[in-house]
Amino acid sequence: MAREGRRGGRAARREARGRAEIGMLPPLERRLPVYEILDEERLERLHDASMRILEETGIAFQDGEALALWRAAGAAVEEQRVRIPRALLLELVARAPSRFTLHARNPARSLEIGGNRTVFFPSYGSPFVRMFDGERRYGTLEDLAVFHKLAHLSPALHGTGAVTCEPVDLPVPRRHLHVTLSAIRHSDKVFMGPVTAPERAEDAVRMAGILFGEGFVAENPVMVSLVNCNSPLVWDGTMLGALRVYARAGQPVIVSPFTMAGANTPASVPATVAQLNAEALAGIAFAQLCRPGCPVIYGNFLAAVSMRSGAPMAGTGELALMNLMIGQLARRYGLPWRSSGMLTGSKITDAQAGYESAFNMLPILLAGCNLVMHSAGWTEAGLTVGLAKFMLDAEQMAMLHRLGQGPRFADFEAAVAAVAEVGPGGHFFGTAHTREHFEAAFFMAELFDNNSFEQWQAEGARDAAGRALEAARARLAAYEAPALEPAVAEALLAFVRKREEHLPEGGE
Amino acid sequence: MAREGRRGGRAARREARGRAEIGMLPPLERRLPVYEILDEERLERLHDASMRILEETGIAFQDGEALALWRAAGAAVEEQRVRIPRALLLELVARAPSRFTLHARNPARSLEIGGNRTVFFPSYGSPFVRMFDGERRYGTLEDLAVFHKLAHLSPALHGTGAVTCEPVDLPVPRRHLHVTLSAIRHSDKVFMGPVTAPERAEDAVRMAGILFGEGFVAENPVMVSLVNCNSPLVWDGTMLGALRVYARAGQPVIVSPFTMAGANTPASVPATVAQLNAEALAGIAFAQLCRPGCPVIYGNFLAAVSMRSGAPMAGTGELALMNLMIGQLARRYGLPWRSSGMLTGSKITDAQAGYESAFNMLPILLAGCNLVMHSAGWTEAGLTVGLAKFMLDAEQMAMLHRLGQGPRFADFEAAVAAVAEVGPGGHFFGTAHTREHFEAAFFMAELFDNNSFEQWQAEGARDAAGRALEAARARLAAYEAPALEPAVAEALLAFVRKREEHLPEGGE
């Protein structure tokens, strides 16, 4: 591997250190069959509808360079509208790799993306936070550091993320620098890049260059970024600019329509999927125009719109159906797939948050999702990231990590023999098989209370959110920053300081 | 249909009335593919292990008449241990119908059990309640009436249940009479029968006779009852006595091992399933010895035991895997299948309750469960039934009812045409397709808050449990008892009074 060769013994030492620290669970290697909701005929109907949308209605690319690229590739371009023949589209989509390695600065935490692997990333993009006091307020860089530390300390989270909350205390033009620096400093897991402007994406690529070495970054994915399609059928200039920067740098982009089903899509489950499939594929094809073979992830963000208030909803049956269909489509195109896991509209970490998150998440796992964003912390339809929710969600990802591995048959005969050994009316605690396997056999959530009522009462009759906050406090007290070579840390800081000299203290 | 013939115009009038009242959703007709977690080879390994358990280890039947029946059928009986050759077992199991109609006193609420149908029944068997004041205390007959009324009023609950809470204010020997009377009076949905003693089961069959006519009851399933295997591998005299009464009366019994995985089964997911499969099949075969062809339901109650405290846990990955495997086994034997849905160990209706219930429930639906018990109200591992939880759960069953119907393709082309109509950058609220389909397109939970933070705050910043209690109050205020012919009501009451004369005021 290029990187190991370049860094030699130092990389090996870092790897050993990473493994000795808090264990990150490896990417989940799913051994459950993927749940195929559609038969071949319906899958092809969806595909065909998406192709017709792109061929006949077309899709807007609000960027001159993008339009020129499409024209050169043979698409029909009329003002900003691009109509893409399916042969061209599929030829471009086929250039994208079906799996790739996403490198972390700690090689033990690098991730295989695609195939039967699933990785979990925390919540992303909330302006508001609820921290220890439970009050809702704007997020700060200090809050963001807390989430980056907790992502580092959560075994089932495979990425640090990026803007888990917006650090609203920093001016927008400089914010991306500090977000990226915080992610790099506080965790050695994979981080995400900014997309709010092409030059900010360039800054992040340069910071990655300082961290990994520019040569390594030129050859290997070391960060992942999220661009959203402005549904229906608009790729705007900002997103295309960021996408182009990352694609040309060989850095993977999650190409995600932002779906509010019923508002910016039809009031139909399969037609919503047909539209978002068209949007995602058009973006993915464009990335391949920018740099053939660059890694991309087929993305989606899904909410359904309440008929009463227009508010986004999560965890409903229709969203489950959509996720199941999208997973099947992504596999049809041989692309890694990203979805959004622990979503809820609840303002707080109450029962609604639990129901909606779980009902939203499980279909995504069974549908074979490769990268699950918003796996921890999301509340209030993403407007607020909550500390309590973050802790509970992150632990549930560890539960799903077990589920996804499927039933273990390795010790099946020995376990069945224990039934004969115990016979009618006994219990199994004393058998050799139980003594050997009990601890590993059944997942237990530390943050859930399954003790007796009396014990729960004696311990303060707290709800899950209260226990989660206490656990967050304890975990943060034990936090140690993962080692970062001082020269690298200094170079990153110097880069940030220098860039800030050229960036305004206000504005968008 | 026998019953329609017997009751003529009266039944027709009742049917019309039933349909005009609060709409009960019909049994869910699943159009999603069942999720098959095991390949053929592993499914057969499980089956074979169950057969070996019954052939070699055997299972205890703690009842003289049962042992005599097994001996006469050709099983090897040694004291209370019965070893059942697989040919005999499978021949008996094959006698059970794969689907049957469970009649409600309102024919519009009768249920098809089996095949691709799923019905939801409320929680069952809790000694404690949490009602409007949120305090945990013993249940009473008055509390029970509240749950029976709410089951009646919940569109996605298909049965009234029975002992949603134990009416602890009544002496045990008389309790079953009042539980059954309450269920019959307060709802015209399907009810469940008592199993705490054979003579109590007989009382319930006689009450059903008063309600439906003895001739009708002799020919048709009109109630469903739950018997539990005392795992590992013990069918006790009480349960066998009740099972025998119902089987001989032609009334369906849910034959359910009570599994605390790791304690009364091996510390292994597939071996736990192999054991409970053996237990369920032995009970089902016994029912067929009592009355060949009598309707039965393959049942299971599943919890996993915490390695730390020995407490039961719900909603974990291992339980999901078990439910998926059990569903597949039940289909292999052509039997309707019952599982337990909205389980949680949480003492209250908090986030834990939401996560655990949802993660426990969804695999059960995808695995093709036919009768889901504990669909509403369960908290504290079943020790407490909660009013708030009942309301939230019951509404989520309506959500799953939508999920289970799968994606609707009927209007697919019209919906895709709306994408062309709107084009890039618009919204869909104005399209003809959206106007026609919006209301029905996306499920919205009335008890979940997806409004803005500001609106939520203005409305009192309540959590989901608080809103659920308010909704329960409003719903109960609008409750009207379903009509019951005065002569029938009087006859039922007279039966209860007369039986009470012969039953002690205390004891078990």
- The CATH architecture of the domain at 99-404 in chain A would be Alpha-Beta Barrel
Chain-averaged pLDDT of chain A: 95
CATH C-level category of the domain at 99-404 in chain A: Alpha Beta
Which structural class do you get from the secondary structure elements of chain A?
alpha/beta
* Tally of individual helices of chain A: 18
* C-alpha-based Rg of chain A, rounded: 23 Å
Q: Largest chain-chain contact?
A: A-B, 127 and 128 residues
Determine the fraction of residues in helical runs of chain A and give it as a percent range: 40-55%
Strand content of chain A: 15-25%
| Biggest sheet descriptor of chain A | 11 strands, mixed
Bulk shape of chain A: globular
Q: In the CATH hierarchy, what is the superfamily of the domain at 99-404 in chain A?
A: Trimethylamine methyltransferase-like
Number of strands of chain A: 21
Give the termini separation of chain A: 41 Å
CATH third-level topology of the domain at 99-404 in chain A: TIM Barrel
Oligomeric state as shown:
homodimer
The low-confidence runs of chain A, each spanning 5 or more residues with pLDDT under 50, are 1-21
Description of the structure:
2 copies of one chain form a homodimer. Chain A is built from 18 helices and 21 strands. In chain A, α11 packs parallel to α12. In chain A, β18, α12 and β19 form a beta-alpha-beta unit. Chain A is 48% helix and 15% strand. In chain A, the strands form 4 sheets. In chain A, strands 1, 7, 10, 11, 12, 14, 15, 16, 17, 18 and 19 form an 11-stranded mixed beta sheet that branches. The first copy, chain A, has a 4-stranded mixed beta sheet with strand order 3-4-2-13. In chain A, strands 9-8-21-20 form a 4-stranded mixed beta sheet. Among the domains of chain A are: 48 residues, no CATH class; 306 residues, Trimethylamine methyltransferase-like (TIM Barrel), CATH 3.20.20. The first copy, chain A, is globular. The N terminus of chain A is likely disordered. Chain A is an alpha/beta fold. At the A-B interface, α2, α10, β17, α11 and α12 of A face α2, α10, β17, α11 and α12 of B.
